[in-house]
Amino acid sequence: MRPLYEPKEGRKMKVLVLFSGGASALPFMVGGEGYEVIGGISSSKSAPGISRFKSLGIPVEVVDIREFYGDRPLKDMKVRGEYERKLLSVMGEKGWEPDVVACSGYMYLLTPVFLSRFPNRVLNVHPADLSIEEGGRRKYTGLGAVRAQLEAGEKVTRSTVHVMIEEADQGPILVISPPLPVEGRSPEEQQELMKVRCDGPAYREALRLLSEGRFALDERGRVYVRTDGEWREGYVRMEG
Question: Whole-prediction pTM value?
Answer without folding.
Answer: 0.95
